[in-house]
Amino acid sequence: MARLYERYKNEIVPKLMEQFGIKNRLAVPRLQKITVNMGIGKAVENPKRVEDAAKSLGLIAGQKPLVTKSKKAISGFKLRQGIAIGCKVTLRGKRMYEFLDRLVNVAIPRIRDFRGVPKTAFDKGGNYSLGIAEQTIFPEISPDQVEFPQGMDVTLTISNGSLDRSHALLQQFGLPFRA
């Protein structure tokens, strides 16, 4: 099993039960899924960008990404219906915990001038969204092979989570929040 999942079961769940006075283990907030999304704005001009982004996202996530297509035509953006404009991956189970482990322990420390992730990126349900400026912070991606630097959005979906419980869970996972 994933190292972070074992830590969650054996260390984090008992700490959160004690901290919030939860009596049932199933009521403790848990990570349900991680969604990684790359929106490629320049895909209209150069369709090769979608292929490169999908290849990079596949290396980072460890599974094949879904290429997303435009639903409507918007003339102001020179966008037609059905054109590939991004790619996304939904991670669950073992891959989800391994991705979070690599994100927290390997990728985030490689960000230049990093001062922590914002505490204000939680939604009302306790889910957390994080924007990453470049995919080259991940060790799977070689900066020499990247033709188009691309950012991504990472959304951590947390079940049974309120704002403070989700914050405590992510803090226990090692996500470095700003002071």
Description:
The chain is an alpha+beta fold. The chain has a domain at 3-40 and 87-173: 2-Layer Sandwich (50s Ribosomal Protein L5, Chain: A), CATH 3.30.1440. 32% of the residues lie in helices and 20% in strands. The chain has helices at 3-20, 48-61, 93-107, 163-173; strands at 30-39, 66-69, 84-91, 128-132, 152-159. Strands 2-3-1-5-4 form a five-stranded antiparallel beta sheet. It is elongated and about 55 Å long.
Give the key terms:
alpha+beta, 5 strands
What order do the helices and strands come in, and which of them pair?
Layout (H helix, E strand, L loop, with lengths): L2 H18 L9 E10 L8 H14 L4 E4 L14 E8 L1 H15 L20 E5 L19 E8 L3 H11 L6
Antiparallel strand pairs: 1-3, 1-5, 2-3, 4-5
Helix pairs in contact: 1-4
Widest beta sheet: strand line-up: 2-3-1-5-4
Q: What is the CATH-assigned architecture of the domain at 3-40 and 87-173?
A: 2-Layer Sandwich
Specify the CATH homologous superfamily of the domain at 3-40 and 87-173. Ribosomal protein L5
CATH class of the domain at 3-40 and 87-173: Alpha Beta
Rg, Å, rounded: 18 Å
Share of β-strand residues = 15-25%
What's the pLDDT, averaged over the residues? Answer: 88
Count of helical segments?
4
CATH topology of the domain at 3-40 and 87-173, anyone? Answer: 50s Ribosomal Protein L5, Chain: A
- What low-confidence regions span 5 or more consecutive residues with pLDDT below 50? none
- Helix and strand string, N-terminal first? HEHEEHEEH
